[in-house]
């Protein structure tokens, strides 16, 4: 099948997206896919109820910690309030927050919130300079600063890999006396931790053999759905591992400041557009049905891999109006496949802010590629309605505690990424070019109407 792709209405490129298949070949392919789907077990992650008692204990502990803080400083420097759910809220000056980090027995969650979000209100180099000023002749303070820096590195090794910060940090170490902890800090300065994706014990790739007639050309239907899902997962992992905590601050993805979140969003939209475009560009309803069921297969394989991101991208690609309006196409899809589709629709439902999806991906114990769109939406909302500082200039730290919880979830996802899968270069090369097959929205609508008029 040859198509003309024009992104801006002027540039024209003729690109072949699907091999020419006879009706008999399409029927045989359809029968095979339907049979495979009938033998597919659709298993959604089960939800585990969290212990309410433990959550209440954590809230009481944090409330007590914050009350003690309020008693230690002037109300012009820190204030503690409570929201409608009884959760403690805090606003404070930067100086007080730093003193809390290094001079008090700080609550673990409070400390993590600071480490994950401090770049929203102070740069890493300026924070280091603050530490320089409070280190004096008091060995106890120096020791606390050193211990905090160890925690800083463990939580945010990405900061210590930045060349500009590393230079400042090296100088900082030459001017501060950290006693026995000095060598350990210098070791952190010299060596960075770069996680490596393990492929030991990876299952054998499911390879596709080229035909003699088309030895230089693959199309989407040539690849095994399980292997396509694996390679899509590895591509997602590659992006996810690169996202730094600082990229989640200040809706940086809307301002060109969050390189890897932007890359994730672009890739996600490409997959969604690719799915929709392939469906509407297929000339016959039988071929469109084959394409839909094949994507359904890939979505189910992604679910088995806990790759919720690609699962949702495929779901949304099939669920757009240019695809759902193709009633004649959906009518020739077998009942079992449609039942699986309805289950995926229920699982991927945006009702209650993707409640089912959120719970599933946050409770996976092993490797998981989350759908980041839910967290991007959460952070966009809070940035729009809650300011970074109060009218009298104090840092609205409760906002950053909320943001930190989201960042921490994403860091946990990253820490558990250890898919034992091998890269298949032919499929990766194919997937890297899918943007060529993504039609503009108006063209997609026109193509859909050409396929089935009403």
UniProtKB/TrEMBL annotation:
Keyword annotations: Guanine-nucleotide releasing factor
Gene Ontology terms: cellular component: plasma membrane
GO biological process terms on file: Ras protein signal transduction
GO MF terms, alphabetically ordered: guanyl-nucleotide exchange factor activity
Record bears the keyword Cell inner membrane: no
Domain N-terminal Ras-GEF residue range list: 85-204
Residue ranges of domain Ras-GEF in the record: 224-447
Coiled coil: none
Record's protein name: Ras-GEF domain-containing protein
Organism annotation: Arcella intermedia
């Amino acid at each position: 099948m040859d198509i003309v792709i024009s992104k801006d209405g002027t540039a024209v490129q003729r690109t072949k997206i699907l091999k020419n298949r006879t009706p008999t070949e399409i029927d045989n392919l359809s029968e095979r896919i339907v049979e495979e789907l009938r033998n597919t077990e659709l298993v959604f992650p089960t939800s585990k109820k969290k212990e309410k008692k433990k959550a209440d204990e954590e809230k009481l502990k944090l409330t007590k910690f914050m009350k003690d803080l309020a008693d230690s400083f002037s109300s012009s420097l820190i204030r503690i309030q409570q929201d409608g759910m009884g959760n403690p809220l805090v606003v404070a000056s930067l100086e007080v927050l730093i003193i809390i980090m290094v001079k008090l027995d700080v609550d673990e969650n409070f400390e993590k919130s600071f480490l994950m979000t401090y770049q929203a209100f102070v740069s890493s180099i300026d924070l280091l300079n603050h530490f320089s000023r409070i280190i004096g002749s008091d060995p106890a303070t120096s020791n606390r600063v050193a211990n905090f820096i160890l925690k800083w590195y463990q939580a945010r090794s990405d900061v210590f890999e930045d060349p500009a910060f590393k230079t400042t940090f090296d100088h900082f170490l030459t001017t501060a006396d950290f006693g026995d902890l000095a060598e350990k800090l210098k070791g952190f300065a010299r060596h960075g931790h770069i996680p490596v994706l393990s492929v030991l014990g990876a299952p054998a790739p499911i390879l596709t053999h080229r035909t003699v007639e088309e030895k230089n050309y693959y199309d989407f239907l040539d690849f095994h759905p399980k292997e396509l899902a694996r390679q899509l997962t590895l591509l997602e992992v590659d992006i996810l591992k690169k996202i730094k905590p600082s990229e989640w601050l200040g809706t940086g993805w809307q301002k060109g400041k969050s390189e890897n979140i932007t890359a994730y969003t672009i890739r996600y939209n490409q997959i969604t557009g690719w799915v929709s475009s392939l469906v509407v560009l297929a000339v016959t309803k039988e071929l469109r049905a084959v394409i839909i069921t094949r994507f359904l297969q890939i979505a189910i394989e992604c679910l088995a891999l806990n790759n919720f991101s690609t699962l949702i991208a495929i779901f949304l690609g099939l669920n757009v109006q240019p695809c759902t309006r193709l009633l004649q196409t959906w009518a020739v899809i077998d009942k079992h496949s449609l039942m699986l589709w309805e289950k995926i629709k229920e699982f991927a439902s945006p009702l209650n802010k993707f409640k089912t999806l959120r719970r599933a991906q946050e409770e996976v114990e092993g490797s998981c590629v989350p759908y980041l769109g839910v967290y991007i939406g959460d952070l966009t909302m809070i940035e729009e309605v809650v300011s970074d500082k109060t009218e009298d200039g104090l840092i609205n730290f409760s906002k950053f505690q909320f943001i930190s919880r989201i960042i921490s979830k994403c860091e946990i996802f990253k820490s558990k990424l250890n898919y034992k899968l091998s890269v298949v270069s032919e499929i990766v090369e194919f997937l890297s070019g899918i943007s060529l097959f993504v039609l503009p929205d108006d063209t997609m609508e026109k193509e859909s109407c050409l396929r089935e008029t009403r």
